[in-house]
Design goal:
With 423 residues, the chain is an alpha+beta fold. Helices cover 22% and strands 30% of the residues. It has a 7-stranded mixed sheet. The protein has a 5-stranded antiparallel sheet with strand order 7-6-5-2-9, with no helix packed on it. It has a 4-stranded antiparallel sheet with strand order 18-17-16-22. α1 packs parallel to α4. The relative contact order is 0.13.
Length: 423
């Protein structure tokens, strides 16, 4: 274990020295009145404008705003500060989480904004383990590292005039600081140090990724409403993904309640759902079959529900799904276990193999209209494919291509056409 830690430290040092050690301003705190700062070692706080530095001993403090100035407990610091570690020590924890680099904070409208200014390469070693696996092929992990670096550079350019480059809770690259690094993934970040994608205009590409797509990625124009030449719909190689196919059963009452929590009103009792089939997409789907909206008919009216709302409320894996209504047949049976005397001594669940997808005892009358009969056991079944928004590099697809011996560059060229790999 000690040897692994030493190796990881060496990799971190190499990353910090490579590719010009480009920094990224990662926003950890915004619109908060106070922030917990907990230090195991002495640390330094510098007023950015005056240059005055205050040394604080180890301990627990609270950073807050009063009268337009930042305070650490009762010590006034100014409205813009930097927090650095003492040589040989470590940065304080922020809200009980550990980071490296340095912190910068400003007072804005009575609130604290605090960034972790950290080396871009280390940022990638922290974020990538949440999106990849150390046991995956090297070429797949390299492709993800380059895509992530491209996205981070895109965000830095996009937000250069703002208080931060990227938020720690960014959907694409959530950042958790120290402690999330994995040796193999860190080595792949090092192996691709400085490499990223440029678009046709010579700008860093917004190289978003998705978990898996069920066979084909989606265009950014359909999902984000903005067209990018390099975020088009392409074939996916994600057949081995656990979520390549999925099924979710839910009661009509639950669907109605969750939808109405968003402010959408379904008047009267739930009576039917209208959605074109995935293999015959209508106006309610994208060309690849992803759902844009569904029509729900109540006893006294009709409501059109946005697919993103439905996916969010029901926590569906994606918006690529078909709908069935009826009473699902069971996928298991519980059999009693009896002893020699015929007495039940336990029970065992036995799976039922229906020879394919689990059928329903009753379904809708047409391909697009799914009638609800109102019986107690009735369910709405979502038969879906893929996980995530479906745009950009498919994580499982990259793995599938790497297993077929495609190189990192070939994987990137497939999922991000019209881009150029540079260093």
């Amino acid at each position: 274990m000690r040897t692994l830690k030493i190796l990881l430290i060496c990799i971190m040092c190499t990353l910090s020295c490579s590719a010009g050690a480009e920094n990224l301003r990662v926003n950890l705190v915004r619109d908060q009145q106070s922030v917990q700062v907990e230090a195991e070692f002495e640390f330094h706080v510098q007023n950015v404008y005056s240059g005055n530095t205050t040394v604080f001993p180890a301990g627990r403090y609270y950073l807050s705003v009063r009268g337009g100035n930042l305070y650490l407990d009762d010590t006034q610091l100014g409205d813009k500060i930097e927090i650095t570690r003492k040589e040989g020590g470590a940065l304080p924890k922020i809200n009980q989480k550990r980071y490296n680099g340095k912190f910068s904070a400003v007072a804005m409208a009575g609130q604290v904004y605090l960034n972790n200014e950290v080396d871009l390469e280390f940022f990638l070693t922290s974020t990538l383990p949440g999106k990849s696996s150390p046991i995956w092929p090297d070429e797949a992990i390299k492709a993800q590292a380059i895509a992530a670096r491209s996205y981070a550079k895109y965000m830095k350019l996009l937000n250069k005039s703002k208080l931060y480059d990227i938020r720690a809770d960014d959907d694409e690259l959530p950042f958790v600081g120290l402690g999330n690094e994995k040796m193999v993934i860190s080595k792949m970040v090092q192996a691709t140090a400085g490499q990223y994608l440029l678009d046709r205009d010579g700008m860093p590409a917004m190289a978003v990724t998705t978990n898996c797509t069920g066979g084909r990625t989606e265009s950014a124009a359909e999902v984000f409403g903005v067209a990018y030449s390099y975020l088009q719909s392409v074939q996916d190689y994600d057949q081995d993904a656990p979520d390549s196919k999925w099924t979710y059963d839910v009661s009509p009452g639950m669907v109605q309640n969750l939808i109405e929590q968003t402010g959408e009103v379904i008047t009267g009792k739930f009576r039917s759902i209208h959605l074109s089939p995935i293999n015959e997409p209508g106006d309610d789907r994208t060309p690849t079959g992803r759902v844009k909206s569904i029509l729900i008919r109540g006893e006294d009216g009709i409501a059109r529900v946005n697919a993103d709302t439905l996916v969010s409320q029901l926590e569906l894996k994606s918006n690529l799904f078909d709908i069935e209504t009826g009473v699902p047949l069971p996928d298991k049976v519980v059999a009693p276990i009896e002893n020699y005397y015929g007495m039940e001594v336990g029970r065992k669940e036995l799976p039922i193999n229906w020879g394919g997808e689990r059928p329903h005892t009753w379904q809708g009358m047409s391909k697009s209209t799914h009638i609800l009969k109102g019986t107690k056991e009735e369910k709405i079944t979502f038969r879906g494919r893929g996980k995530g928004h479906g745009v950009g590099l498919s994580v499982w697809g990259a793995r599938g291509m790497a297993n077929k011996k495609f190189s990192c560059a070939e994987i990137l060229a497939h999922y991000y056409p019209n881009t150029k790999l540079v260093k």
